[in-house]
Amino acid sequence: MTAKPLILPPNPTIGVFDSGFGGLTVLGALLPLIPGAKYIYLGDTARLPYGSKSRETIARYAVSSAKFLEEQGADLLCVACNTASALALPEIEQALSIPVVGVIQPGAEAARKESSRSVLVLATVATTQSHAYAEALTSLGLGVTEKACPLLVPLVEEGWIDHHVTAEVLRIYLAEAFAEAPDADTLLLGCTHYPLLQPLIERTLAQMNHPMTVIDSAAATAARVAEHFAPNHAGNPATCRFYATDSIEKFQRLGTSFLGQPLAEVHLLDLGG
Amino acid sequence: MTAKPLILPPNPTIGVFDSGFGGLTVLGALLPLIPGAKYIYLGDTARLPYGSKSRETIARYAVSSAKFLEEQGADLLCVACNTASALALPEIEQALSIPVVGVIQPGAEAARKESSRSVLVLATVATTQSHAYAEALTSLGLGVTEKACPLLVPLVEEGWIDHHVTAEVLRIYLAEAFAEAPDADTLLLGCTHYPLLQPLIERTLAQMNHPMTVIDSAAATAARVAEHFAPNHAGNPATCRFYATDSIEKFQRLGTSFLGQPLAEVHLLDLGG
């Protein structure tokens, strides 16, 4: 969370940004919390995935996406992307004049409520290498192990969310992580694609006789965004406008499974490059 | 191959372009064929993968990469990327004034030499949706089935090139393909990442009691490039300069396994975006 002051417009415009579809899980958590808002969602799908790229490249991509949403009238920006939150939050905050909420700090605080010892964070290569979760969780007094899981995003995008290959990949990643962190009691899903795998992850943990509390940062992040706005009891319906930098058709098709409802009004956006 | 005339400089400069590392398998095939050349390789790693993106986005990225290599003095451009060759070859040819060689036509002709019936092409989503291989192989009188294999590139990049998960993914993709194309006798690797999986693919085919000739287009494409140049018997050593649009360190590390030798002199390049 930034130190910028709270803003309280009656019908706020909230920008939500991700490299792709995963941030729609955060938007899904925002809708019931701030029902009267106007949401503008940008998926930078032409340049995804961010998770395998360098800090400089991620920051350049994230800042251009964030600026677009501010120009569209956003009163607040929610960076619903773990990789961009982990590697580019200072650059985004510096480039904008509106409050910016990332997913790392809310996710870490949600883990703090569950864990008494140590947290295992599953995330992309870039997020783990940034050690943003390690810093946030350590400052809350918790032990941390970060595990990069580069195959999980492609498996989710292939639609193999309840598939024996995905289960085997999870077993391999989790076994490697447990070898390093046998005492971890909480599993933090540090990528907005991973909530779609939560049932399979919980089943795999049970089969490995290693039960853990599994949490994702979507709900915690949405709650943090809501702190910025006065409750709206007028009953205005939320509106959502979607922008994607690559194929609109693919965005509508994949996005529906992330948001849990059909996506209307997706616009193609050229951010250059 | 373009209709542009042959060019015969004594020490040609050859531009080789891919979205990432895979095109290094083509460069590896070029080095012994045209030993006296100066090679400039560009991996557009900041914007990879191309294979899951739309035609318009791929064309925009590919043209900017191709123009860079022409500006660096390339006498010929080899598009060592199946996706860019399949979706953007006309746009690239129109944007440049040097000859352009893609991988589709040479790959199809190499398959023609092996197949008497029907070819199974494994490739990215974008390449299969373009049907570029289907058009090229059909015009050579062959039957064709194109199978998208979106998980293979991430598995190669994870380094799981001899791994039981990759074998299982291959079995699933191949079984789906054989259900559609039971009489295919030749397997064409339609992505420059896939040659690294060739031993595992051949073992999997044997285990499935479905032996096929496996070919990749790297050697055929290199031979097509060599047709543009007079043989050089002067014994000049080849030089290679590498550009990547994302992390140089990752490019050097992963690139070594694709080229089969260490990569010297990798430069970071900003193509914007």
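qc> The radius of gyration of chain B is 18 Å.
qc> done
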